[in-house]
Amino acid sequence: MTVSNPCEHCIGEKGTGEDCCIDVFIILNSQELTLFNEFNGFHPVVDQDGAIFYTKEGCPYLNEDYQCSIHDIKPLYCKFYPIFITGVPYIDDKCPAHLDSEYVLNTALKDEIKLLQRQNPIYRKEWLWEEVEQFIQDNLK
């Protein structure tokens, strides 16, 4: 992957990254579905293309220092953050690292994301918070 995740620079430091990975949804491609199977109470909404994993409680893979305990194998959606790779790619301006020049959406990175979207249909859809909440309510009855 072209992008390295900036989280080690901010998450867990008071006033910078304490909200990261807490109230979050994660798009899982079909190869990543087993990552969250072992956690009771965390129910991804699954379809044939992958899943949406949504929690207000925090990712179960955050350790006591609020750092990712599966950094090397975490979902692509997380690895690309602060770039959202679904729909039309964009950078999350709420992320403290988003101004870093390494995270500019250049042509090469856009091409890499387009390839991922062709390989994994779950990344083609643009997901907005309201849509995710409604999707989950509709599918977890």
Give an account of the 3D structure.
With 141 residues, the protein is of the alpha+beta class. It has one domain (7-132). The protein has 3 helices and 5 strands, in the order βββαββαα. The strands form 2 sheets. Strands 1-3-2 form a 3-stranded antiparallel β-sheet. Strands 4-5 form a two-stranded antiparallel ribbon. The longest helix has 13 residues, at 107-119. The radius of gyration is 15 Å and the shape is globular. The termini are far apart. 26% of the residues are buried. The model has no long low-confidence stretch (mean pLDDT 77).
What would the principal axes of the Cα set say about the shape?
globular
Our measurement of the CA-to-CA distance between the termini, rounded to an integer number of angstroms, reads: 37 Å
Alpha-beta classification: alpha+beta
The tally of structural domains comes to 1
The total of helices stands at: 3
Q: What quaternary form is this?
A: single chain
H/E topology pattern = EEEHEEHH
**Unreliable stretches covering 5 or more consecutive residues:** none
Average per-residue pLDDT, rounded, comes to: 77
Proportion of residues in extended strands = 5-15%
Radius of gyration: 15 Å
Beta strands, count: 5
Described by strand count, sense and barrel closure, the largest sheet is:
3 strands, antiparallel
